[in-house]
Design goal:
The complex is a heterodimer of chains A (358) and B (277). By secondary structure, chain A is of the alpha+beta class. Chain A has helices at residues 42-50, 92-102, 107-121, 136-148, 166-183, 194-200, 218-223, 228-233; strands at 4-13, 16-26, 31-35, 57-62, 65-66, 77-80, 154-158, 186-191, 203-208, 211-216, 240-247, 252-255, 258-261, 274-279, 285-300, 304-310, 316-322, 334-338, 345-348. Chain B has one domain: MetI-like fold (Orthogonal Bundle). Chain B has helices spanning 2-32, 36-40, 54-61, 70-101, 107-116, 126-135, 142-150, 154-164, 168-176, 181-192, 194-209, 213-218, 227-234, 243-263, 265-273. The longest helix of chain B has 32 residues, at 70-101. The chains are: A alpha+beta (358), B mainly alpha (277). At the A-B interface, β6 and α2 of A face α9 and α10 of B.
Chain lengths: 358, 277
């Protein structure tokens, strides 16, 4: 019932089409994270939903009601901004109360709502402070408090954690998640940080150049990326994509002159079809009789290490493996690797789309 | 040793500068208490003569040859300076608000037209402005004295700069909160630019207080003489000038702007240096 529906949403700035048609439905209480590199249209999408921009085409429905032409304040939504956007001259209390005051709520009612939100966020002791007297994390909480007091149908988050330091970001991430679960408010969360996206979202929408590329659960996106863009964007370090050719009636791929078996499943592709063989760095296995890759750089990360290797032809491979007690391979030394069949992703080389076994 | 000597140089320069600025004022204060004839001979003592302080009562209440009582001129000056300062702020605040936050046809044209008036201060368009005031029958009136000085672009430009510094997100947050344009102006824009408004008030007050050419032209009625005009009128061409009274009036004319600056100093400095975040 209560949720958000986007219907063929498009936005152009002049001749520049930023959003090229987005259809989307959010269930009641769901948290959807929109993730993508900068310029992919994710912020524009959020601003359209907020009503800060007008769509060129398409409709926005909140809780079944068409709000496309409504003012932001009439949409029953609340937004948390990247720079918090707290009113600098107002106290924490006034910041949270301002929207309610405009709506014409009675003083006692406002007091009750602000008190409830501030105790939820642990802001009781700070209500009389001005924003400049608060730390980054506290400001972030006030910004969320301002959203919560309005009791909206929809929360919008515009990269709310990107101004915080790494440690605080992890902590606030957890808080946002707990809060959203508890309040069960449908939420749209925009970020460029894939860790945030993976940990926060019930579902993820990966955007690329104004087009939604994949909409799925974080696990699904990680395990079955829809195309090479998603495969490279989600996961760190990025998935290895090796150019190869389909062989043996769709049951094997050759990379340079080495053949990799794809296991019991069969792909409906003719022999010689150009593909990408995708394999995540953590899934690359060391094998005594495997393909030889000369090591270029070894990065020690403490408990594990990253090995970057390059073939004479220029193909590169990243391997992530626990630190061996004997230390890592030396520069120029070759490592021999194998790709477990059930960890291999196959993408069409021309379109970049994922190919599933028949 | 060497270091402390080097430290003395800036201090010496500063002290010298302070003396340079303060000396004329001190001469005016000291001179106002002395005998007019002695000043005319160029024999000004730097030590005030306390018995001569009565000159202040004389000029304030009775005036001197050629000019009316100074209390009256001070009132006219204060009225004019306040009217100009408040008038300019009242006019430029909405105009800057409009060109900064709203999209309307010919917005930039409007802005550049306002900007252009910077190149045409009252002094440049003295005769046409006088013509307009004359047609409107505003010669020798307080309205005629102040209105032409109120219409100018400086304050609009300064406010525009202040408003441009207000982050977009703040504007958007207010829109989400449901604040309409007037509410946004009242609740967010004006409080956030408070320090700048105060700084501008100081500048405009001093500007208004120091006006000379326009008041000289438009207000021939002695009742509308500002204190600046009063001083000039006291310096007679054919009669003997009472220099002690001239200096006393100058000192009196100095007090209100100095008081405004001192009172608003904290805001003034804040407004000029930090863009209140």
């Amino acid at each position: 019932m209560a949720g958000l529906t986007l219907d063929g949403l498009r936005k152009s700035f002049g001749a520049n089409e930023i959003l090229k048609g987005v259809d989307l439905t959010l269930a009641d209480g769901e948290m959807l994270v929109i993730v993508g590199a900068s310029g992919c249209g994710k912020s524009t999408l959020l601003r359209l939903v907020a009503g800060l921009e007008t769509p060129t085409d398409g409709r926005i429905l909140i809780d079944g009601r068409d709000v496309t032409q409504l003012d932001p304040s009439a949409r029953d939504i609340a937004m948390v901004f990247q720079n918090y956007a707290l009113y600098p001259h107002m106290s924490v209390y006034e910041n949270m109360a301002y929207g309610l005051k405009i709506r014409g709520l009675r003083k006692a009612e406002i007091r009750a709502k602000v008190d409830a939100a501030s105790s939820l966020l642990g802001l009781e002791a700070l209500l009389d402070r001005k924003p400049r007297q608060l730390s980054g994390g506290q400001r972030q909480r006030v910004a969320m408090g301002r959203a919560i007091v309005r009791d909206p149908k929809l929360f919008l988050f515009d990269e709310p954690l990107s101004n915080l330091d790494a440690k605080l970001r992890v902590q606030m991430r957890g808080e946002i998640r707990r809060l959203q679960r508890r309040l069960k408010v449908t939420s749209l969360y925009v970020t460029h940080d894939q860790v945030e996206a993976m940990t926060l979202g019930d579902r993820l929408l990966v955007m690329h150049q104004g087009v939604p590329v994949q909409l799925a659960t974080p696990t699904e996106i990680f395990e079955r990326p829809a195309d090479t863009y998603v495969a490279g964007f989600i996961g760190s370090p990025a998935m290895n994509l090796l150019t190869g050719l389909m062989r043996r009636n769709g049951t094997a791929i050759t990379v340079e002159d080495t053949e990799f078996d794809l296991g019991p499943q069969r792909y409906a592709l003719p022999d010689g079809h150009p593909v990408f063989l995708g394999i995540r760095p953590e899934h690359v296995a060391l094998a005594a009789d495997g393909m030889a890759w000369p090591v270029e750089v070894v990065e020690l990360l403490g408990s594990e290490m990253l090995v970057h290797a390059t073939r004479p032809g220029g193909a590169t491979l990243t391997l992530r493996t626990p630190n061996p007690p004997s230390g890592g391979p030396g520069m120029g030394e070759a490592i021999r690797v194998a790709f477990p069949a059930d960890r291999i992703h196959v993408f069409d080389r021309a379109s970049g789309r994922r190919i599933e076994p028949a | 040793m060497r270091r402390s000597a080097l430290h003395l140089i800036p201090h010496a320069v500063l002290i010298l500068a302070i003396l340079l600025f303060a000396l004329p004022i001190w001469i005016a204060i000291a001179g106002s208490t002395q005998d007019s004839a002695a000043i005319a001979r160029g024999e000004v003592s730097l030590v005030p003569n306390l018995n001569g302080l009565s000159v202040y009562r004389d000029v304030l209440l009775d005036g001197s040859a050629g000019a009316g009582p100074v209390w009256r001129a001070l009132l006219v000056s204060a009225g004019m300076a306040l009217a100009i300062a408040f008038g300019k702020i009242a006019l430029s605040l909405p105009s800057a608000y409009a060109v900064t936050f709203f999209r309307f046809p010919f917005r930039m044209t409007a802005f550049w037209l306002i900007f252009l008036t910077l190149m045409l201060p009252v002094e440049v368009r003295l005769i046409p402005t006088f013509q307009v005031m004359s047609s409107l029958d505003l010669i020798n009136s307080f309205t005629g004295l102040t209105i032409p000085l109120i219409a100018s672009a400086t304050a609009t430009l300064l406010f525009r700069q202040t408003f441009l510094a207000i982050p977009d997100e703040l504007v958007e947050a207010a829109r989400m909160d449901g604040a309409g344009p007037l509410r946004f102006l009242r609740d967010i824009v004006i409080p956030v630019s408070g320090a700048n408004i105060a700084a501008l008030f100081v500048i405009l007050f001093v500007y208004g207080w120091n006006q000379y050419l326009w008041p000289l032209l438009v207000a021939t009625d002695p009742k509308l003489d500002t204190v600046v005009i009063g001083i000039v009128k006291m310096i007679g061409v054919d009669t003997a000038t009472e220099w002690n009274k001239v200096m006393a009036t100058a000192v009196l004319a100095l007090i209100p702007p100095v008081a405004v600056v001192l009172l608003m100093q904290r805001w003034f400095v804040k407004g000029l240096t930090e863009g209140d975040k």
